[in-house]
Write a structure and sequence with these properties.
Its EC number is 2.1.1.72. This is site-specific DNA-methyltransferase (adenine-specific). Residues 689-716 form a coiled coil. One of its GO terms (biological process) is methylation. The chain is of the alpha/beta class. The protein has five domains: 4-145, tt1808, chain A, CATH 3.90.1570; 171-255 and 278-331; 352-676, Vaccinia Virus protein VP39 (Rossmann fold, 3-Layer(aba) Sandwich); 680-710 and 916-946; 720-915, DNA methylase specificity domains (Adenine-n6-DNA-methyltransferase TaqI, Chain A, domain 2, Alpha-Beta Complex). The protein has 32 helices and 33 strands. Helix 20 packs parallel to helix 22.
Length: 946
């Protein structure tokens, strides 16, 4: 027995044979030692007496026990040292041909069979071939394992355990490491996350990158020694070696200060050059400058974390759910006050929004943008969904290619790093692809996640794209108190940014950062492009008429979906998904708005976030929305259930006008809302105080603006006009329509009666039934006064045309019957081509209705008027309120005719129609503020405090 080589290499110790550590295994690097000698020295195997594997190129020894493998890999099981693999190392010049490769494979298989192991390896140091020795012996030919990575402890472990294709979920690993980091450093959740991601990246890269890119001395396995042995070999601790040697090497491979080489990205923001200033790591809680503890003192904890990673196994095939929820695990650790929550959107919400966006249908070279990208969920998760963008990122000739351009913008450096690491994780299959280089991967990261922090206050807002984005998916930050700093910063930006003067571009009058982002979004979309934006409830029911007006000038609202409170980890603020579509032409019609009430999102809304896939209203709403887009939306004149779903309605676009609230609850009746089983919420006291404070401060700002506006508008000259003035007004009662009439003659004409809600109808009646009784639906809009009803008397509403009122409603129109008749006569004469004086007064109504082209009239078609109908409703409401009319003093036509209204006049005494309209709009916004106050009070009373 010759053991000279074993002794010379230090493998034989007083305690027996011990190889070099190779992860969880041991390695004997040999070449001259026979199989029989290894068995005699204590390896736990019996040399084979003979081998039946037929060789074609290699001439095996007569006795298998005389085989001399170049390397043997061992696993220590208790006190036993068991061989699991052998390797044959060949000079590169001897593996150039197929014949030479065949000979080397046969030699390795014979050596493996001689030792009774199942794994044989051949390599020239740069290429590795993994052979299934047992299957090769059975089949009589060389059989390879499906493995392409360079040899590492992780690869060997996967081959030995038969887990090369196993999909792993590192959730338990993340939980364990989180606890270890936090207990050692007491760092914030964000710093714990950055630290975990940094170590995760090292293990991930070590398990997937070739040795030529990340040599053995810089890999995860290089740290897996006993601390004393490591210090003896390297002269330093593991954590110091990592910080001073391995960490810089990783940053060298994924270098910072990389120029974005995609011209389309630069053009998007109007920048000649964009530089990526970040790598994939730069957050290590053990390096906190404020700590008085040295880095080396954390070595025990660092080694404990390394052991946890090593025990977990290979990071090759990673469960997509883990990719989706990695950041979610750390966010749960924050007590809602941490900044981590500012760049995180729950995965279930992202999934539904991605489905709604229908990214798979986008043509080549489309652009998908997230201007507040955070960790990149909206851009990366579509890569994992079969119906979104799988395979969107490819590498061709060493360069990254994207069929659909994905671009995310961030202002925070750490968050940009996390997004890049997240992208690398999502591209794990490509990382180990031999056709993908680290340089190309790094370029793909740089081209996708853009750091725009030249102005750290404005971030993405400083460089707004213009008419160039197909889809926007985003959750922008929302801040109202203190948000004035953004507008002040915009005021001080000089020069053009992508062709725009920012102070003019963002002059939309909205409160909060989210209103600036909405302006950014509406300008960025190309005609027909869509944006899916998470916004706070306050933005939708705020009376920001200028912001809404300018947004509507560029976009249609196509969906407004309420998310459940506490849908987000870090805030109890009610939130919505608002969907916008860029208008193709100025006069494009507006479709009905898809409205939804999501009570559930597929998981519990507490700290645990337990999956509840059977309770996911948001997923259902996403499916319904896709159906809504694929079919021509029906015309609706009032909120109507969509596809018979109680949580989805189509609402007329007029309900989402500039002076309307854009939330959706008001489109469900109280009875419907109760039937949905919406439970009383439980809110933590701190959250309740914060939300109440924010809401009240917001309302105070709006009330102040409304007061100043109304004081300014009503400060001018006014004149008093009596409604009995037949030259100006037409007053009449509605018609008698009974409940039985509605039941027996259903139709499409809405019938209004004495109700306190404007959108409540008594029913819809047949046009034929009305015509048979000589009743015509209202040709023009009007103002109505509830004549009776204990709670409704004196209530005033504006009504559109093509409806009828019951006889307990008084109709007021600001033009006289003679004026209306004169206008109708002119229309009939024009239609018939005859002189107007040939039309008989008594026949004008019938003639007007008979002739084609004279139906479907709107307010704009009505006889010229000097009193705006919306203003008349406001002024009449004020007069009735000041008069103290009660149920006993019913307001029928005679009493209404005795009322007067104050109307603004210009300097020459003519009625000021423009000021009327402004007062009406201001009053409408005040009504919206009152509604919000009322709703806040109801919520405050009903909510349960935890």
């Amino acid at each position: 027995m010759s053991k000279e080589e074993i002794v010379k290499k230090g493998y034989l110790t007083p305690n027996g044979l011990r190889g070099k550590r190779f992860g969880d295994f041991e390695l004997l690097e040999l070449g001259s030692t026979t199989v029989s000698t290894l068995a005699q020295l204590g390896l736990d195997f019996t040399p084979a007496a003979n081998i039946s594997f037929p060789t074609k190129r290699y001439k095996p020894p007569k006795r298998p026990s005389t085989c001399r493998p170049d390397a043997v890999y061992l696993q220590r099981v208790d006190s036993r040292l068991v061989p699991i693999a052998v390797a044959e190392w060949k000079d590169r010049s001897k593996l150039r041909s197929e014949e030479e490769a065949q000979e080397a494979a046969e030699q390795a298989i014979v050596a493996a069979l001689a030792m009774g192991v199942g794994i044989a390896i051949t390599t020239d140091g740069s290429r590795f071939r993994y052979l299934d020795a047992a299957t090769s012996a059975t089949s009589g030919e060389v059989v390879e394992f499906d493995e392409v990575r360079d040899l590492s402890p992780a690869v060997l472990a996967d081959l030995h355990r038969g887990e090369s294709g196993l999909v792993r979920d590192p959730k338990s690993l993340a939980e364990t490491v989180w606890q270890t980091i936090w207990h050692a450093t007491k760092a914030e959740p964000k710093d714990c996350l950055l630290t975990f991601v940094e170590i995760f990246m090292l293990k991930f890269l070590s398990d997937n990158l070739p040795l030529s890119v990340l040599p053995a001395d810089f890999r995860f396995e290089a740290l897996l020694l006993d601390p004393e042995d490591f210090k003896q070999q390297k002269g330093t601790s593991q954590i110091e070696y990592y910080v001073n040697s391995i960490r810089p090497r990783v940053k060298q491979i994924f270098a910072d200060r990389l120029i974005v080489d995609d011209d389309k990205v630069s053009e998007l923001f109007g920048l000649a050059t964009i530089t990526s200033h970040t790598s994939i790591i730069n957050g290590f809680a053990f390096l906190r400058s404020s700590s008085t503890v040295t880095v080396s003192s954390y070595n025990r904890t660092f080694c404990e974390i390394l052991d946890a990673f090593q025990e977990f196994g290979s990071l090759t095939n990673i469960d997509p759910e883990f990719k989706l929820r990695l950041y979610e695990m750390f966010l749960r650790r924050s007590a809602r006050q941490q900044r981590l929550g500012q760049f995180f959107t729950p995965r279930n919400i992202v999934k539904s929004m991605v489905k709604m966006a229908q990214l798979s249908s986008l043509p080549d070279d489309s652009v998908v943008l997230d201007p507040a990208a955070g960790v990149g969920g909206f851009l990366l998760e579509p890569l994992l969904f079969a119906d979104a963008l799988p395979g969107n990122i490819q590498f061709v000739d060493g360069k990254p290619r994207q069929r659909v351009k994905l671009v995310g913008v961030e202002v925070d450096v750490d968050t940009n790093i996390l997004a890049k690491a997240n992208m690398l994780l999502h591209l794990s299959e490509l990382v180990r692809d031999s056709s993908t280089t680290p340089a190309a991967l790094n370029q793909a990261l740089a081209n996708t996640f853009i750091l725009l922090n030249g102005n750290e206050t404005l971030g993405a807002l400083e460089h707004p794209p213009r008419d160039s984005v197909d889809v926007i998916l985003t959750n922008p930050p929302y801040v109202t108190q203190g948000s004035s700093i953004y507008r002040k910063e915009i005021e001080h930006v000089s020069g053009l940014r992508n062709g725009a003067v920012l102070k003019d571009y963002y002059d939309n009058g909205g409160l909060g950062v989210e209103s600036l982002f909405l302006r950014y979004i509406s300008g960025a979309l190309r005609p027909g492009g869509r944006a899916f934006v998470i916004v706070p409830l306050g933005l939708l029911n705020r009376t920001a008429h200028l912001m809404k007006s300018r947004l509507l000038a560029e976009c249609n609202i196509i969906a407004s979906i309420q998310l459940p409170r506490n849908a987000f980890f870090n805030t109890a603020q009610p939130t919505y998904i608002l969907v916008l579509e860029k208008r193709r032409v100025m006069n494009q019609s507006r479709p009905p708005v898809f409205c939804g009430l999501a009570r559930t999102i597929g998981e519990t809304l507490d700290y645990e976030r337990v999956a509840t896939p059977e309770e996911n209203d948001l997923a259902l709403l996403a499916d319904l929305f896709v159906q809504f887009l694929k079919t021509s939306p029906p015309k609706v004149d009032r909120p109507t259930l969509y596809q018979d779903s109680p949580i989805a309605k189509l609402v007329p676009s007029a309900e989402f006008a500039k002076d309307e609230r854009w939330d959706v609850v008001r489109h469900w009746t109280d009875e419907e809302y109760v039937a949905l089983g919406v439970r009383t919420e439980t809110v933590e006291r701190a959250d309740f105080i914060k939300f109440a404070e924010d809401t009240l401060m917001d309302l105070l700002d709006e009330l102040r603006q409304a007061r100043e506006e109304l004081e300014s508008l009503t400060a001018g000259d006014m004149t008093q006009i009596r409604l009995s003035n037949a030259a100006r007004f037409q007053i009449r009662s509605g018609v008698r329509i009974r409940n039985v009439d509605l039941r027996e003659n259903p139709g499409e004409v809405p019938v209004y009666s004495v109700f306190t809600r404007r959108d409540t109808i008594k029913g819809k009646i047949s046009r034929i039934w009305l015509s048979d009784r000589g009743i015509r639906p209202e040709l023009f809009p009007s103002v109505t006064v509830m004549a009776t009803g204990a709670s409704a008397v004196g209530t005033v509403f504006f009504r559109e045309s093509d409806c009828v009122m019951t006889d307990d409603v008084v109709i007021v129109q600001p033009w006289s019957r003679p004026a209306e008749r004169k206008w109708k006569k002119q229309k009939v004469a024009d239609a018939l081509g005859v002189p107007v004086d040939t039309i008989v007064d008594e026949e004008v109504d019938d003639a007007f209705e008979e002739h084609a082209g004279l139906t479907g009239l709107s307010e704009a078609d009505a006889p010229s008027q000097e009193i705006d109908l919306h203003y008349l409703a406001v002024a009449l409401s004020q007069t009735i309120a000041q008069g103290g009319y009660l149920y006993e003093a019913k307001l029928y036509t005679k009493r209404v005719g005795q009322l007067s209204v104050d109307v603004p006049v210009m300097a020459d005494g003519t009625l000021d129609l423009e000021r009327q309209r402004k007062i009406a709009a201001a009053a409408k916004r005040l009504d919206a503020i009152r509604s919000r106050l009322e709703e806040t009070g109801r919520w405050s009373k009903a909510v349960r405090l935890a």
